[in-house]
Amino acid sequence: MYQEKIINPPSGYLTFALSLALLGASIFCFVSGIFIWGGVLLAIDVFLLFPGFLIINPNQSMVLTLFGKYMGTVKADGFFWVNPLTAKRRVSLKANNLNGQQLKVNDKLGNPIEIAAVVVWKVNETAKAVFSVENYMQYVNIQSEAAVRHLANIFPYDHAEGEETSITLKDGAEKVSELLESELNERLSRAGIEVLEARISHLAYAPEIASAMLQRQQATAVIAARKLIVEGAVGMVEMALEKLSQKGIVELDEERKAAMVSNLLVVLCGDRHVQPVVNTGTLYN
C-alpha cells in the first residue's frame, strides 16, 4: 500500500527565465549561421526545460512517477519545475457530489423498497487513489452502492406491527446517515477517499407493495385515533356519572346506568352526527 509523500519542487520562474535565455541564444546562433549550436540550445530548451514546467491550481495536486517509481505528490499551488522525465498525473482535491441512483432492495423484514443516497467525498491521499485502485471514481460509485444496499438490508423500513425497533430507515435518519458515512469511510479508505457527508436522498416502498403498505398505515392511524376517542369517551362518561351522583340530580339503577353509558358512548364514539330523541314520558317509559 503506497503512502502519500508530499514534495515541494523548486519554483519554475528562474527556470522559465533560463528557458527564455536559451531560446534567445538559439535564435541568435541561427541568425549568425552557427546552426549546430543553435540546434543544441533549442533541443535543450524544448526537450529538457519545457517538459519540466508544472502549474498547480488551488485544490489540485500532481502525482509524479519516474520510470515506474512513485516520487511524490505536489499539493502546493503555483508554478514549479520538476524533472522533465517524470510522468505527471493531475488529481483534484475538490469535494465531489455523488447522487446515487435509486436501488430496489429488500429491507430487514424482506419488504422491497427503493432507496438512494447522496455522498459528498474528496481525495485525501493521492497515492492510494492513483496506485491502489484502477479507477477511483468508479470505485467510489460501486462501493457507495454496495454500502447503501447493505444498510437497507440490516434495518427495517418502518416499525413492524407489535414490534418496536430501535432504528428504522424511515424514522432514524440521523443515525442511519452516521452509519452510512462510517461504513463508506471504511470501504473507501483503501482508495484514499474521505467521505464528508452521506445521507439518504430517496426512500419509499416499491410500487408493487406501496398500495398495501399505505392501507396498513391508514388502518394503523384509524385504530390509534379510535383508541384515543374511546379512552376519552370512557373518561367523560365516568365523569358524568360521578357528577350526577355527587349533586343528586337523578337516581339511576344499574340498568338505567348501563343504558345511559351505552347512549353516551354511541354519541361520543360515533363518526357521524346523532339525532337526538326527546323522551316526553317518564324515565322508565
From TrEMBL:
Keywords: Hydrolase, Membrane, Protease, Transmembrane, Transmembrane helix. Its main location: membrane. Coiled coil: none annotated. The keyword Hydrolase applies. GO terms for biological process: proteolysis. Residues 51-217 form the Band domain. GO terms for cellular component: membrane. One of its GO terms (molecular function) is peptidase activity. It is found in: Membrane. It holds the Pfam family Band_7. The keyword Ribosomal protein does not apply. It is a single-pass membrane protein. InterPro entries: Band_7, Band_7/SPFH_dom_sf. The chain crosses the membrane at residues 12-28, 34-56. It comes from the Bacteria. PANTHER family: BAND 7 DOMAIN-CONTAINING PROTEIN, MEMBRANE PROTEIN-RELATED. This is Regulator of protease activity HflC, stomatin/prohibitin superfamily. It comes from Pedobacter suwonensis.
